[in-house]
Specification:
8 strands; 10 helices; binds benzoic acid; globular
């Protein structure tokens, strides 16, 4: 899935994405590692990794995000690359990836995992966090209802696996899974229309081909319907469920 991100707006309004990713760095064993940040976005997490003394390269599919990252952190290597077309050969001690893998179609997940494996030296570490089973279930469920009310079919375009599902996938390509956690993380969103704004940014594919007026109506009706569940003390929350894992190359 290729979204033409507005890198500056993303970093201003959704800064929680790289911030939450910091915990991932703690899962890495070793100092001065050579690390690939897969799906680095605007480079905030890449910079944190660099500041901890590692040698890091950031890659992302989005040209806008990479240009933004290069401007912000000229001392770090960044370039555009696709997880499905990586061609590193055992160059890295670790691959880290935050909030990226759920964008890859389920059928392409084994290829992505195999490519990560090929990037790593023997014993190399793959640490990542992605949306896990049940991620944003309230939001996608309500959008599905709003589409159905209008005679439309809602196709949820993300892959949110369980621990078992993703462990099998990783083991199938040659990883040993050493850590796995699935946990709820209700995530505060900015502004009175926080949920609608979140949908505008992150749920694009189901709305392709619909008029803006219909799309806006669906999202506003979904936001209203979810107020009881996702709005507390003046703040909107997205019902995030995270899958955090670490796997090692045999
Ligand atoms: C996430 O879980 O990080 C996520 C999933 C889908 C869209 C946006 C974010």
């Amino acid at each position: 899935m290729n979204i033409d991100w507005d890198a500056k707006s993303y970093s201003e309004h959704f800064s929680f994405v790289p911030q939450y990713g910091r915990d991932l760095i703690e899962l890495l064993d070793g100092k001065k590692l050579k690390i690939l940040d897969l799906g680095c976005g605007g480079g905030n997490l890449t910079k944190e990794i660099c500041d901890r003394g590692h040698e890091v390269t950031g890659i992302d599919l989005s040209q806008n995000q990479i240009e933004f990252a290069k401007k912000c952190y000229p001392e770090i290597k960044f370039f555009v690359s696709d997880a499905l077309a990586l061609d590193f050969d055992q160059e890295f001690d670790a691959v880290i990836s935050n909030a990226v893998l759920h964008w890859i179609d389920e059928r392409n997940q084994p290829l992505a995992a195999k490519n990560v494996l090929n990037c790593l030296k023997k014993g190399g570490q793959f640490v990542f966090e992605m949306g896990g089973a049940g991620n944003n279930a309230l939001i996608h469920g309500e959008l599905e209802r709003q589409f159905a009310k209008r005679g439309l079919k809602y196709e949820m375009a993300f892959f949110f696996p369980s621990v078992g599902q993703y462990s099998s996938l990783l083991e199938g390509v040659g990883f040993k899974v050493v850590y796995a956690l699935l946990f709820d993380r209700p995530t505060p969103l900015e502004g009175e229309n926080g949920l609608k704004d979140w949908m505008d940014t992150f749920v694009k594919a189901p709305f392709y081909g619909l008029d803006k007026s219909i799309s806006d109506d669906i999202k506003l009706c979904a936001q209203t319907a979810l107020k009881d569940k996702l709005y507390r003390n003046g703040v909107w929350y997205a019902d995030y469920v995270r899958l955090r894992m670490k796997a090692v190359k045999f």
